[in-house]
Write a structure and sequence with these properties.
globular, single chain, mainly alpha, 9 helices
Length: 232
């Protein structure tokens, strides 16, 4: 790579990361929408992987250009920080456990509850869990939390960093509002913006208090997405 370009990327890591994440995700999604109008993006396809993993791919690319193997190793180290204390696992799972307790209490008081969606089996739920774990939590956390958040917090406080990241993360999902089958199609964008930004603040709190554990943020992200699926 041209040394002048590499130097510019090293100086403007966040801009490069966000731009590259958007370019990959938008190019894949809107190309697919134009080539196959009305068809949902096929899970586990190459296009699907490129779109959902664009933050992680971008983080690794910009990390390699700006800091070489040492920076890539630092980013990947977030996946190994699992010794953080049992309470942080509880708080990571709270985005699922909290709504579950409310639902069970509501049902115990004699109120009607729709329960699990009709037709769901153990096998289909296992597939949903695997899909939900990849399509967001594993695919994105290295980029948003591992790469972007520490760099934002080097410039701003945790709250402002979270608000900035929340807005950027929200609009990274914009192609999904036009993708058949995506859950975003049923949510008004302003409400989605509030939800994602609120979750971003929560994930920042978890990340900062677990020494940058991506395991914890992946678990929390997964808990939120599973709750959205079960209540959607």
């Amino acid at each position: 790579m041209n040394t002048a370009i590499a130097a510019w990327i090293k100086k403007h890591q966040l801009i490069t990361f966000f731009t590259l994440s958007y370019l990959i995700a938008y190019a894949v999604a809107f190309s697919y929408i134009n080539l196959r109008p009305g068809e949902p993006l096929q899970p586990w396809s190459l296009a699907w992987f490129l779109q959902i993993f664009s933050p992680t791919l971008s983080g690794l690319i910009v990390g390699w250009i700006s800091g070489g193997a040492q920076e890539v190793k630092r980013l990947l180290a977030g996946y190994t920080r699992w010794k953080v204390g049992v309470w942080w696992y509880f708080w990571a799972a709270f985005l699922f456990l909290g709504p579950l307790v409310i639902t069970l209490t509501y049902k115990a008081l004699g109120n009607p509850s729709p329960g699990i969606r009709p037709g769901e089996t153990i096998a289909s739920m296992a597939g949903v869990i695997l899909f939900t774990l990849f399509s967001g939590p594993i695919a994105e956390e290295l980029g948003w939390r591992g790469f972007a958040l520490p760099r934002l917090q080097a410039k701003f406080n945790a709250l402002l960093s979270s608000l900035i990241l929340g807005v950027i993360w929200t609009f990274w999902h914009l192609p999904l509002f036009y993708t058949p089958g995506a859950t975003q199609m049923s949510i008004p964008l302003p409400i989605y913006l509030v939800l994602v930004t609120t979750v971003t603040v929560y994930l920042t709190w978890l990340y900062n208090n677990t020494r940058g554990s991506l395991i914890i943020t992946i678990l929390a992200h997964f808990a939120y997405n599973m709750t959205a699926f079960l209540t959607g």
